[in-house]
Amino acid sequence: MPKSEWFAIPKGYNAPQQVHITQGDYDGKAVIVSWVTPEEPGPSEVFYGKKEKQYDQKAEGTTTNYTFYDYKSGYIHHCLVDGLEYNTKYYYKIGSGDSAREFWFETPPAIDPDASYTFGIIGDLGQTFNSLSTLQHYEKTGGQTVLFVGDLSYADRYEHDDGIRWDSWGRLVERSTAYQPWIWNSGNHEIEYRPDLGETSTFKPYLHRYMTPYLASKSSSPMWYAVRRASAHIIVLSSYSPFVKYTPQWWWLKNEFKRVDREKTPWLIVLMHSPMYNSNEAHYMEGESMRAAFEKWFVKYKVDLVFAGHVHAYERSYRISNVNYNITSGNRYPVPDKSAPVYITVGDGGNQEGLASRFNDPQPDYSAFREASYGHSILQLENRTHAVYRWNRNDDGNNVPADTVVFHNQYWTSRTRRRRLKKNHFHLEKLEDLISLF
Ligand SMILES: [Fe+2]
């Protein structure tokens, strides 16, 4: 069991630990507060209010627990705090007596096309020195909410300590997760299909510990869902749940794209774990089946950005698509496409599997920037037309962004730009033309 202060168990009998919050509704007026009590269930209550130490409101949650092989979890609490006001700082308290603990969070601005907001993007975090470094660097950026692209604790890598490592990861990330929402997505390390241990129910620890507001977006599973926050519509997809045509995830996404209103939320962002475009030797082509299922919609609905993890390196694409690919005729390679998203892989949070340092050579034309270093990304939505994006590598600290791009909104800027374009512009393939797409 890790003994470092970064994983410390809070003082006091049965003190709440592993505190984390996530958005609790579709539009950002609710949070779900989650925590674990180790010894006994204790109260599942959140006391909260707008003034420090003055908790004039109370919400009641539920308690669950689970077993995994020979591990028995603590008591896991989930409490929906709703009816909140936008743009407001709330203080909250959980636990009782000497063991009570206090935190705070800030609600986002109301849904508005010009609401500015800053997201952090973190993936494949784990619980190493590099994981801590990523968290410390992220904290200096002013990020208000984390979009997490899967592979949380890597507990499954610690053969006989799975549950204990889930607990220690929860304590490590609490420094951020207790104070701002993390929008959760799962990765392959959350599957935990272990028939050899008698554990055949997939995603068991993840689903018990990390809640998502999936019902608010009419999803039938916590594994895929959507939230709207400030000027962004964020769609979370599960790489390891069925997604081919006619599956529940496929139906849900088809309908969710129809609910996107770019007049209200101009920024359309998709999260997944396994990247659709990846020129690293690690996990090469693993996202191809989801690309075949969903890329057409990404282009049709002009998704702005697709963030993924999984590959332990950083890569950003140009706007390209391969929607004309078919097995008998037509293009069989990605081409520049102004309606296509930019694909970004940020699987470099810092887990103990190490970096994926072998990229395919030469770098394909669609790949704009790639590097095997630990880090995280920041997406600063300025208004309906512009966003400033940067990737920070841990080695440089937060003052030296290693990759910086200004993104123009796919909906609002294309409305004026489209008139100027000739049809055949989309078939240019030279690198200079790719670059000009920005
Ligand atoms: Fe992964």
UniProtKB/TrEMBL annotation:
CDD domains (UniProt xref): MPP_PAPs (cd00839)
EC nos: 3.1.3.2
Keywords: Glycoprotein, Hydrolase, Iron, Metal-binding, Signal, Zinc
UniProt enzyme class: hydrolase
Annotated protein name in UniProt: Purple acid phosphatase
Keyword Iron: yes
InterPro entries for the chain: Calcineurin-like_PHP, FN3_dom, Metallo-depent_PP-like, MPP_PAP, PAPs-like, PAPs_C, PAPs_N, Purple_acid_Pase-like_N
Family in the record: Belongs to the metallophosphoesterase superfamily. Purple acid phosphatase family.
PROSITE patterns linked: FN3
